Amino acid sequence: MHKVLIVDDHPFFLHGFGGFLEASGGFEIRTALSVDEAIASIDEERPDLAMLDVTMHNGGGLKVLRHLRLHFPSVPAMFLTVHIDPEQTIDAMRLGVRGIALKDSDPDTIAGAMKIVLGGGKWFESDVTEIALRHSI
Question: How far apart are CA 125 and CA 121, in angstroms?
Fold first, then answer.
């Protein structure tokens, strides 16, 4: 069973997606509604995977990712977001994010991506990486 921390400031999405993952099996879900709550949860429980929303108050997913890299560099992280700017994608990749999924993707696809990342791989929405690549040229 993989311990996953989902960080999102929208309770409806947070609990709905968390419930879906728990029902699908193989995931033990922890949740956090803020950056500060996420950092406290990471420090206390050290998840096997952190699923981070990019856009949140107080620094969002990038702030949580920086904390992970500083204190728990081996814990993989993915972004799960509605939208991500090319600059944010590039920053996240430089910080070692292992995947980026969009919230309008099929939940089974996202769960599969999480399993790939938990297995040591990487998984990125092709639209996100293509836009970031074009932006960086």
Answer: 14
Q: State pTM to two decimals.
A: 0.89
Q: What is the pLDDT of residues 48-88, one digit of tens each?
A: 999 999 988 788 899 999 999 999 999 999 999 887 777 88
For residue range 13-51, list pLDDT tens digits in order: 999 999 999 998 899 999 999 999 999 999 999 999 999
- Sort residue 44 into left (φ over 0), alpha (ψ -120 to 50) or beta: alpha
Give alpha helix (H) positions in 7-121.
Answer: 11-24, 35-45, 60-71, 86-94, 107-118
- Pull the structure tokens for residue 12: 């409806």
Biggest CA pair distance of the chain: 42
